[in-house]
Amino acid sequence: MAVDSGAGSIGKLPDVRFIARLEPPVVVPLPVAYELYASVGIEIPQESLRATTFDDLLLQGYGTSAAEGDIRAIHQRRALTVPNEHDDLAVREHEYTLYVEKQDYGRVIEEIPFAHPRQLIAVLPILRQYALLSSILHTTLPRESTPKKSSSESSTQDSSSETIEESNMPREAAELGRLLADDGCLGAPDLSIDIGLSAQPAPRMTLVFPWKKEAVTLVFEIDRDGAISVVSQNAWRDGESHGDGGDEKEKPRKETDPRRVLEISEDLGITTEYLRRRLV
User: Fold this and answer.
1) Where are the alpha helices (DSSP H) in 8-90?
2) Separation between Cα atoms, residue 126 and residue 133, nearest integer Å
3) How far is CA 178 from CA 167, 183, 205, 268, in A?
4) What 3-state class would DSSP assign to 259?
5) Pairwise CA distance, residues 98 & 80, whole Å
């Protein structure tokens, strides 16, 4: 059947693209950026490429210090208000050291052109994956944007900004408060926490903190769509975590689910405090 291309015919439809703008932008490794743009049928202009690393883009504004070899180290201190065994609020000071062992090239994704909504749906799981990594690191290691205040002012500020309370909070935040208040406050008031960061093939964060005479280590991996999993740990025996059941009397440490706490809080400091209360 012939197609009428005369007067009154709309002819070939125009090649239309829409643009999804990301606020805030998402930092991804360069190979992931190529994958994202290939999913929507475009290429990254070569002239727009810069020799910037993933961690430089992700952690702009943080101070650095030399470490062994080419490993980048970032040091940050933070006061965290948590409930103690008497349900009173206690301020615990954390000192974090973030290690970036492998420096990958990265790119800031500010907008994504697409021709059909299904293309955008296809890239959302990757964007959620790296957006969650950014959120966890920035929440755990907040930048100091204002001068330090007096001790009384700081105490008031910390209580209002870092307190874990149930009132006026969403259901998941209230659940987190109950988890943290479930056991007594253990350990010294000052705590040193090491965090190892790797970006590929999937974002991983290695959390290391002291417990009695041990060093507790957990490796969290962020999968597509922002799903968090614990890929390795030495905090409990196999079969004892995540509510797997069994005889409580035979367990040296209580059942716990740090993955769930990290999903709710997006904070490695809070996750550490939770774990220290659950270890026995």
Assistant:
1) 30-39, 54-58
2) 11
3) 12, 9, 25, 17
4) helix
5) 18
Q: Which of 26-40, 63-77, 89-103, 238-252 has the lowest mean pLDDT?
A: 238-252
pLDDT value at 256 more than 70: no
Collapsing DSSP to helix, strand or coil, 260 comes out as: helix
User: Is residue 173 exposed (0-12), middle (13-18) or buried (19+ Cβ within 10 Å)?
Assistant: middle
Establish whether the linkage from the previous residue to 142 is cis, with ω within 30° of 0: no
Tell the burial category of 206 from Cβ atoms under 10 Å away from its Cβ (0-12, 13-18, 19+): middle
- Using CB atoms within 10 Å of the CB of residue 101, give its burial: 0 to 12 exposed, 13 to 18 middle, 19+ buried: middle
Cβ atoms of 193 and 95 within 8 Å: the answer is yes
Mean pLDDT (the chain) is 74
Q: At what angle do helices 258-265 and 268-278 cross, to 10 degrees?
A: 150
Question: Are residues 195 and 96 in contact, defined by beta-carbon separation less than 8 angstroms?
Answer: yes
Q: Which residue has the tokens 């890929």?
A: 231
Contact in structure between 235 and 215 (CB atoms under 8 Å): no
Rounded CA separation 244/224 (Å):
25
